[in-house]
Amino acid sequence: MCMFKKLIYFVITVVLIFSLLQISAFAKDTTITIKPGQVFNIFDYLKDVGDKLTVIYSGNNSKTTYKVLEKGADEKGNYLLCEVTYEPNWDNDPPSRQKYYIPYVPHKIGTVTYTKKNVGQVTEDMLSNKYVSDDIQTLGYLEGLYTDASVLSIDKINGTPIKSTQYWYFANFLPQSEREYLASRFIDGTAFEWPSIFYTINVNGKQIHYEQYGAMPYIKNGRMMIPYRALFELGFGLPENQVIWNDKDYSVTVIKGDTTIKLKIGNKTAYINGKPYTLDTAPELKLDRTFVPLRFVSEGLGYKVEWIPDPGQRAGWGTVNITGN
């Protein structure tokens, strides 16, 4: 009888061990290398919880790693929930969790042609899948190139000069010296000056399409900087005679009701109805556009400003809600 009990305990122990080890002992760890634009299907490599796939991109030696955390189904169909990490991760973002639905079939949404330092002109396929809109995927691809200091220009979309497409604002590049300086600061995670199309700015519920002004906002010293005409004219609906640029002293004056604000390029002293205020970040001239600190001028005109960071903690993503007046 004692031997029988020992046998039962042994069987139970073995079952428990194998149930615990099914994730690790039998999980597959695969590494593949692909060329730029090459299509691959993650479901060729990821099938069960614990499976891991490391994709090395031969074009720039970056890596993306997928690890299956969960298998399941929802209203869209069967999926794998994966933890996704990127290397190098310039923004020091934590690993993201993404659902990949079966079948996951990347498809070509177009081509992009750009000029890379020490390489020359390159044309690559842009890929997406049915659960990501083609426009968002294209914007993400273009912003990735825009913030790559080794990319000297983005030239064409689907063979058409980019300046003749809806993405024309990505043709406006910072000086190369400044691009390399910003890239060098990514090491300590302090460089947010890269212009970003993924900042959503709303005034009383209406989105400001600042890209119409050929420039995108950015964060500097913890302050969002925005092209002043995009904010004052598009956002606040002020006419040109209430938004005055002085090319003699490089200043901008905005008048709304009984409030007048004056700011000057490179000067941290601003004036509201003649009273001086010290700014954290001075207005700047970039890409032939004047950028001003959004919160200071908005609150100075009587608006309330709320910053909502991206839930995924991605640098260059977030929402600003401006309300009032």
TrEMBL record:
Q: What protein is this chain from?
A: Copper amine oxidase family protein
Presence of keyword Signal: yes
Return the Pfam families for the record.
Answer: Cu_amine_oxidN1 (PF07833)
Q: Which UniProt keywords apply?
A: Signal
Q: What start and end residues bound the annotated signal peptide?
A: 1-27
Q: Quick check: keyword Signal in the entry?
A: yes
The record's InterPro entries line, in alphabetical order, gives: Cu_amine_oxidase-like_N (IPR012854), Mao_N_sf (IPR036582)
User: What top-level branch of life does the organism fall under?
Assistant: Bacteria
Taxon lineage: Bacteria, Bacillati, Bacillota, Clostridia, Thermoanaerobacterales
Q: Which residues form the Copper amine oxidase-like N-terminal domain?
A: 203-308
Ranges that cross the membrane: none
